[in-house]
Design brief:
Layout lengths: L2 H34 L8 H40 L3 H8 L7
């Protein structure tokens, strides 16, 4: 299993976990407030939204990192293909990249 698949799985876990934990945290805060008789509402939207936004942002970051790793792997594959190709045109295009380090 490569790192990009792990990061994509973490992105899904962060999204689903953020939604689930947001619902649970909003209800838990409400039970505490009800025991103290501080609130009459049945759901605390601000707590839920903060968890949801946190889950979405972390999920997007993990997914973006996974996409970057996928892109780097495709670049590496194409450079290896050019390097192993015996045709003169491939060697010429690879020679133009000589200032870059692999």
């Amino acid at each position: 299993m490569n790192m990009s698949k792990v990061l994509k799985a973490l992105a899904i876990l962060a999204l689903v976990g953020g939604i689930f934990l947001g619902v649970n945290a909003a209800n838990a805060v409400d039970e505490l407030a009800r025991s103290m008789r501080a609130r009459d509402k049945s759901y605390v939207w601000s707590v839920a939204l903060s968890w949801w936004i946190g889950g979405v942002v972390s999920g997007i970051l993990f997914y973006a990192l996974a996409m970057m790793l996928d892109h780097l792997e495709s670049i590496k594959r194409s450079l290896n293909t050019m390097n192993n190709d015996p045709s003169p045109s491939a060697k010429k295009s690879l020679a133009s990249l000589n200032r870059y380090k692999s």
